[in-house]
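Same chain as my last thread, 370 residues:
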Amino acid sequence: MNASRKILFVDRDGTLIVEPPDQQIDRYDKLALVENVIPALRRCSEAGYELVMITNQDGLGTVSFPQPDFEGPHALMLRIFASQGVRFSEILIDPSFAHEGRDTRKPGVGLVRHYLADDSWSRARSAMVGDRMTDDQFAANLGIRSFRLDTGEWNWNAIAHELCDAPRRARVERNTKETRIAVEVDLDNPAEPKATTGIGFFDHMLEQIGKHGGFALKLECAGDTHIDEHHTIEDCALALGQALKLALGDKRGIGRYGSAAEAATGDAAQVAITLPMDETIARAALDLSGRAYFVFDGSFPRERVGEVPTELVPHFFRSLCDALGANLHLAVRGENAHHMVEACFKAVARALRVALQREGSALPSTKGTL
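reply #2:
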């Protein structure tokens, strides 16, 4: 059987609603929703996730936690969620205390035996969201992924992004006798870029690619700069191109062409990004075609900018195209070499920003492959 259903199991206190110091939501004035939980759950529902609430409620129904005290705030919470299009297909509550050791209490899976016996849902595509180690353990016992809200690593916006957007990420390590490189990219996360190569101006240029390309970039390189800069600059381009290619996957939904306006060429629109920088102007036209080709038109007025030989600037982009499988035409005119090099990197980054952007799920090619 092809398991097509995906289920998001969700804890209640500390996950859907804020947990008070006494750990009991037994009055209406204690009821408060966790930040961004409604839009996140709506996104998950719209993406096809079934929502199942599963919660431990210590001593529910006893003198210490009377059932009516629980039911009023709980019902109001459900009405609030339902009013915003968030509905739970099932609500599973264990009322026992931890010392009782019941298997129905998380991390036990007694309450979800019917799911364990059901092969119609996908463990690989399902997940658990909670705020305790027991939620992690419950997820492990069920064979699904876990997200914890109490560690600071995740919040509801990030979880919805992870589950619904199919994040395009990659990590590449490239180790040779000349360089040791680790590069990470996240094409759907415009985080601040960070590059450390031992070549200050080159770090600045790499960070331009991430910043103006609109994606998270982290690159670390230990290279033989005591010999010269060539190996570091070339191998960083190759590693970055490989990471971008891996993150793109099958390229479905991408813009493909780095464009700012339309000009008919073949099966899609293709024009250039034109970027000014003081007296300098750079133009980059990009196609993530799967075919590597690079054309450069420009001449730099001096041999070096900082520690970077200007002859390695076109070589960097040629190597990037080779590893990424991209067609790039890059031209630059100016008088200040620093401005010219920086404009080249920014123009290519802005072209990448448009080409990497997802516009749906179609493959942007009449050939049926990229």
